[in-house]
Amino acid sequence: MSNNHHRWLLEQLPQWEREGLVSTDAARTLRERHAVDDSQPGAAQIVMGALGALLIGSGLIAIIGFNWDDFTRPVRLMFAFVPLLLTQLFSFRALQRGEATAAWVRETAALLQALATGACIALVSQIYNLGGEWPDFLFWWLLLSLPLVWVLRSSAVAIFYLIGIAVWSVAQVEHSRPWYDSPLLYPLLLLGLLPYWPGWKNKATLSLSVRWVMTLSAIFGLCSAAVFACDRSTTTGHGYYENCFFWLWTLTAAVLALFPLNPSCLDEPTRRKPQVVLGSLWLLGYGVAATFHGTSREILRGMPHALHLPWCWGLLTVLAAFLVLAFLRRRWAVLAIASISLLPVLMIPLYRPKAQPDGMLLSWLALLHLSAIGITLIVLEFAGKKGAPRLGATLLSVLIIARMADSDLSLLTKGVAFIGVGIAFLGFNILMGRMLKQKTAAPLPA
Amino acid sequence: MKTFPLIIFGIAALAQWAAPLSQIWTHEQVLAQGTLIRLKCQAPDPYDPLRGRYLAVRPVLREATLPAGLKLQKGMQVYALLTPGADGIATISALSLTPPADGAYIRLRAGYVYSDKASIEWPFDRFYVNEKLAPEADKWFAENIRGDKGITAEVRVLNGRAVLADLSLDGKPFREILKERAK
């Protein structure tokens, strides 16, 4: 539950007590269990604080960008360092007051200091006509701003950092860069925010917005690293790098979906786990695509080249570790979906170096695997365990449609089959709706 | 108040000062003690959203001849010895992987290498100008860039580092010319 939900509940309790809906003891228990955590800023507070800081910071950068020709160099440098000093003092004061500082003040102080840092290095490079590309500037700005996330617990600077490292990584996907100036650095940059990861033993809950930005940043950053690793492979004579990174992206999605979570995070609803949602969506899409012979053939053509890359082995190692952890935590659904990424590996014993790979076997394997997942998700629900029947039914419907589209059957047969699948899907949906109604209407056991 | 966050904050604040100050220190040294080198250049007028208007400075000299035996690859650092010609404009007289024993030299990055030549990437590529002067600067460039005299980049060089100090036309500083034109 978010702070907004807790607040709503606490506002309702007095009325419920008066109406006799809850006893005094039950109300006290609810108050203790659903206490509002004021140390974490609300979304509105972050937005207001960040907006104010952004306006001031952007104004500062624009003034600095004007280039005051009439002033001497020391005077112009003062324009850079005085705002930095003032924002540092502001942040220090916020830090000194500790818990007494309102969350939005902390956010504003951190963001202002980050912007003043950027403005300062921008002005110095303007005064001395320094060359260099904007990603280099961004890189140093991000590194100098990162500690503010730790000490001031600033979500706004964390979001700025996450977006920044993703943008930097995408910009660095360029042939023949040295590894230390490439997206291969992204995992290290992300480690800078380790205390913020949802699986870390951090007492504070991570806001939904930071989780989503973190996941999207990881997707862009890690996928850029995969493309860069493939690009380098072309110089050593390996080809097919497009096919190569398609599989590497899938391994990345599996790593994200399986990212270790602590017990409290595991119990949260799925929408609070964007890495699981987005990772699973890619994996399921990849699985459906792999049911087509042509796609499977391309995947198999790329895989041997991917296996030449250290980046691929890095991903496989991390994936293996995460698979073990997920197994220990009994995350069966995510394990089943993530295993789709490893289907091509099962084809390695059949690999013949000079023969063109045939995608037939892999496409059938993908079809059977996805069908098994779809059926399991439905059966689990009917067996009284936690399943996802609607997702299972959707998956089966998509599979049938994909297979029909790929077949040589006449349009009439395809049309009839589509109508049949549509009716079955709608019927299943209605059935599930009724079952849910019955469940919620049933009296609680005494 | 907890000490650990304060220590981290102190280190961060110091780093935020140290990064620009180290740049200032290095570049002030080059400006004060460096040898003046003149390079003929070409430049249009682009814009940087963070640092304002600038003139993209591109020295005409874009490649150098490789001495026999020098194995150079794209992206490698190389030292270029600069020697002024009779017209005062510098040219690259030698390339080496180690700093030359004497003379004015710049540390550069090698671009594409082909037969006995290598393209070079200069360590400076922009000259910032006031937003008000920028349109006039743009016109000035368009009028003079193809002229016989050409526009000259004045670069201070010290221990391989280079700082673009000014632009000039026929020995006259760029800003003076612009201010006269603006009158």
Descriptive key words:
heterodimer, A: 446 residues, mainly alpha, 18 helices, 71% helix, flat, B: 183 residues, alpha+beta, five-stranded antiparallel beta sheet, 28% helix
Q: Count the strands of chain A?
A: 0
Give the topology string of chain A: H per helix, E per strand.
Answer: HHHHHHHHHHHHHHHHHH
Q: Unreliable runs of chain B, pLDDT <50, ≥5 residues?
A: none
Inertia-based shape of chain A: flat
Residue share in β-strands of chain B: 35-45%
Radius of gyration of chain A: 27 Å
Helicity level of chain B: 25-40%
Q: What's the N-to-C terminus distance of chain A?
A: 27 Å
Nearest-integer average pLDDT of chain B: 83
Total of helices of chain A: 18
Find the count of extended strands of chain B (DSSP E, 2+ residues).
13
Major sheet of chain B: size, sense and barrel closure?
5 strands, antiparallel
Low-confidence runs of chain A (pLDDT<50, min 5 residues)? 235-240
Mean pLDDT across residues of chain A: 83
Helical stretch tally of chain B:
3
Quick one: overall form of chain B?
globular
Class derived from helix and strand content of chain A: mainly alpha
Structural class of chain B: alpha+beta
Strand order within the widest sheet of chain B? 4-1-11-12-13
Distance between the termini of chain B: 60 Å
Quick synopsis:
Chain A is an all-alpha fold. Chain A is built from 18 helices and no strands.
Explain how this protein is built.
- Chain A is flat.
- Chain A has a domain at 73-214.
- Chain A has 446 residues and is mostly helical.
- In chain A, helix 10 packs across helix 12 (274-290).
- Chain A is built from 18 helices and no strands.
- Chain B has one domain (34-182).
- A five-stranded antiparallel β-sheet of chain B has the order 4-1-11-12-13.
- Chain B is built from three helices and 13 strands.
- The A-B interface holds A 61, 64-69, 77, 80-81, 84, 88, 91-92, 95-96, 98, 113, 117-118, 120-131, 134, 137, 140, 144, 147-148, 150-152, 176-178 and B 1-2, 5-6, 8-9, 11-13, 15-17, 19-20, 23-24, 27, 48-54, 74-75, 122-131, 133, 163-164, 175.
